[in-house]
């Protein structure tokens, strides 16, 4: 029994250093990347941003086009109501009011759909970029010998030689020559 305990203790002592070695973590070799600069200066990113700005301008113009006639109609209806001096509107004015409310509601819904599409387009652009960046990070880290990559905004200070932003931009330019700027239509909800 005594020899069994001694043998177990010796075996345990021999295994302990091996277990400690297996748990050792290598020293961190850190690289930093400026993601704002990446997403603003990659070739496809600049083109996508310009297209998105154009879409925003078109949506604003469309919303103004929807709103101008409604404003004119609202002013006309308000003038007719004011002319009644507190009397109830007749059937024709009530019909105009109801038609105006329907048009205004329709214009609001159309504008909301346009804004939702813009938001979906922006998210779609970001997703395409993010999908390509993951593998690029790994490639840059491997090429530069880094085992940790941080966004430059998450650091207090860094040395210039750990900044791999240009490498990431070059990788993204190669991996993502174009970006689709219109999100695919959402699938229709399925009935039960």
Q: What's the arrangement of strands in the largest beta sheet?
A: 1-2
How many domains make up the coordinates? 1
Oligomer category: single chain
**Secondary-structure element order, N to C:** HEHHHEH
Question: How many strand elements?
Answer: 2
The fraction of residues assigned to DSSP E strands is under 5%
Structural class: mainly alpha
- Please report the distance between the alpha carbons of the first and last residues: 71 Å
Q: In one word, what is the shape?
A: elongated
| Main sheet: strands, sense, barrel | 2 strands, parallel
Can you put this structure into words, describing what you see?
- This protein is mostly helical.
- The protein has one domain (28-175).
- Helices cover 70% and strands 4% of the residues.
- The protein contains 5 helices and 2 strands, in the order H-E-H-H-H-E-H.
- The protein has helices spanning 2-22, 35-41, 43-83, 91-144, 165-175, and strands at 30-33, 148-151.
- A two-stranded parallel sheet has the order 1-2.
- The mean pLDDT is 87.
């Amino acid at each position: 029994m005594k020899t069994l305990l001694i043998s177990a203790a010796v075996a345990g002592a021999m295994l302990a250093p091996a277990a400690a070695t297996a748990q050792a973590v290598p020293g961190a070799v850190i690289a930093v990347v400026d993601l704002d600069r990446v997403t603003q200066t990659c070739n496809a990113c600049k083109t996508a941003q310009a297209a998105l700005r154009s879409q925003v301008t078109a949506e604003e113009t469309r919303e103004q086009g929807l709103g101008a006639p409604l404003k004119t109609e609202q002013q006309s209806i308000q003038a007719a109501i004011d002319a009644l001096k507190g009397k109830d509107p007749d059937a024709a004015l009530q019909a105009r009011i109801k038609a105006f409310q329907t048009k205004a509601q329709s214009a609001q819904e159309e504008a909301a759909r346009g804004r939702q599409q813009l938001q979906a387009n922006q998210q779609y652009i970001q997703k395409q970029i993010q999908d390509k960046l993951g593998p690029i990070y790994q490639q840059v880290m491997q090429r530069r010998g880094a085992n940790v990559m941080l966004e430059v905004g998450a650091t207090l200070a860094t040395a210039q030689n750990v900044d791999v932003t240009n490498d990431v931009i070059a990788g993204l330019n190669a991996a993502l020559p174009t970006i689709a700027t219109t999100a695919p239509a959402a699938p229709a909800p399925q009935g039960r």
